[in-house]
Amino acid sequence: MTQARHDLLLLSNSTAPGRAYLEHARDAILDALDGLRSIVFVPFALADHDGYTNTVRRAMEPLGISVRGAHEGTPRDLVAGAEAVFVGGGNTFRLVKAIHELDLISVVRARAAEGMPYIGSSAGTNVATPSLRTTNDMPIVQPPSFETFGLVPFQINPHYLDPDPASTHQGETREERLTQFLEENDVPVLGMREGTWLRVRDGAMRLDGVAAGGRIFRRGSAPVEVPSGADVTWLVERVGSFDTPR
């Protein structure tokens, strides 16, 4: 069996306070594309596909990167022929419904295994994992399955927020929700704070970015703090399992 050559840039977020869309991650994006000059953008996490694609064009074209929306032709064919793919954020349930209905899962997996750069942000990072189960989003639509691309073997929680002792919010903290996920699934979760990204290349995984890293949650263990710049390749050492209650 040929080993997959995944080349991934998985962003927690696409916007940062006081900065333009994707500005905080421009150097990381250029590094991930490594001289490539075009991407196919997958806009299906938002309803306005044209407007969303134009937002990405305005961010990418000054960098010398042309952008074509996956909706501007046959999505599967455009992804199959892409130099690189960028899957944008929005509602993960809506995105997952679309990637199933448009038959994109197998083609993205195949192209990514060949080494095609895959860039995801927020929901686009969620769907790089095996399942949407660690999204923060409301289920505004019902996808046929929770299965996603599975380009990494663990789960990610983008936009991770630390518990705030001063908060008056009475719902679960993010930490409590991820702990509940681990009560039903034995799969590690990487909680990525705003401004961070996961870089996957040549079999190695590094949490990087302009902010203070993240946290790793595993069944039976206390959460582990991970600083920006840390190697997290060890997350792939054990295959997790879903629907395995304690």
UniProtKB/TrEMBL annotation:
The keyword Cell wall biogenesis/degradation does not apply. It holds the Pfam family Peptidase_S51. Keywords: Cytoplasm, Dipeptidase, Hydrolase, Protease, Serine protease. Its EC number is 3.4.13.21. It is found in: Cytoplasm. It comes from the Bacteria. It is an enzyme of class 3 (hydrolase). It catalyses: Dipeptidase E catalyzes the hydrolysis of dipeptides Asp-|-Xaa. It does not act on peptides with N-terminal Glu, Asn or Gln, nor does it cleave isoaspartyl peptides. GO terms for biological process: proteolysis. One of its GO terms (cellular component) is cytoplasm. GO terms for molecular function: dipeptidase activity; serine-type peptidase activity. The keyword Transmembrane does not apply. Its main location: cytoplasm. NCBIfam families: PRK05282.1. Belongs to the peptidase S51 family. This is dipeptidase E. It comes from Micromonospora olivasterospora.
